[in-house]
Amino acid sequence: MNILVLAGTAEARELCHLLAAAGHNVTASLAGATRKPMPVGVPTRIGGFGGREGLQDFVQTHDIDVLIDATHPFAQRMSASAAAIKVRHHCILQRPEWTPSADDTWIDIETPAAAARHVKDGQIVFLATGRQTIVAFAGLGHAYVYARTIDQPTHPYPHNGEFLQGRPPFPIEHEIELFKRLEIDWLIVKNAGGPNSVSKLDAARALHIPVLMLKRPILPEAHVMSSVEETMDWVVRLGNG
Q: Mind listing the pLDDT tens digit for each residue in 149-191?
C-alpha cells in the first residue's frame, strides 16, 4: 500500500520504520518547524502542503491509500485538514495524555492567555511549550520567563526573561538542578504526553513546583489510535480486508 505519514513525533519515526520493513511504500511529511529534524528512515518531504487543497492534491497525485496523522497533539490545523480530505483510509495516531499523580499540583488551562491569571508579579516561569507558541504567552510580561526551545530563535525575546536551548530527552537530575538554579516558581507545558519530555514534570513534582498544563485541542472525528502497535494492527487489517 502507498502510505503517507504526517510525522514529527517519536511515534511517527517508529511507525515509518515498521511500515517500510513490512513492505509498504511509505512517505513521511514533516512540517519543517524544527531546523534539523531527526530522520525517519523513509523518503521524506519537508514543508506545508498549501492547505487542505494542497494535501488533497498530494494524496491524489501519489495515489495514497492510507493517510496516518502522527503529528504532534497540538498540530490542530494539520489534523483538521487531514480529517477533511478524501482518502481511502485515514487514522490519527496520538499518544495518551499525561495525567497527574496525587503528589502533583497541576492547573489545566484552555489557552495561553489564561496563564497570566495564575502567575503573580515577579514570579519566575519556565515555559516549555515550544518556539512557535512563545508569543501567545505575551500576558506574562509581569513575570520573568525562561523559554526553552530546540532551535536557536531568530527573533528577539518577547518577554521579560531569556531563551534557553536544548533538545529532549533530559535526565530528571538535569531538570531538578536547572529548576533549582533558576529558582522556578511555575512550569508551563503543553499536555503532549509521551516519555521524552516527562522528566520536567517529574522534576516539578520533586520540587513541589506547580504546573500550568495547556489542554490539548479537540481531535477531529476519525479513527484514533493510541500506540504504534495499535496502528500497525489497523494497517494489517486493511491489507487483509
A: 887 777 777 778 899 988 888 999 999 999 999 999 999 999 9
Record the cell numbers describing residue 95, joined without a space. Answer: 499518544
> CA 164 → CA 30, 144, 155, distances in Å?
24, 13, 14
Helix (H), strand (E) at residue 14: helix 10-21
Q: Is 62 helix (H, G, I), strand (E, B) or coil?
A: coil
Asked if residues 65 and 2 have their Cβ atoms less than 8 Å apart, the reply is: yes
pTM: 0.89
Question: If pLDDT is split at 50, 70 and 90, which confidence band does 241 have?
Answer: low
What residues have CB less than 8 Å from 15, skipping those under 6 apart? Answer: 5, 68, 70, 93, 228, 231, 232
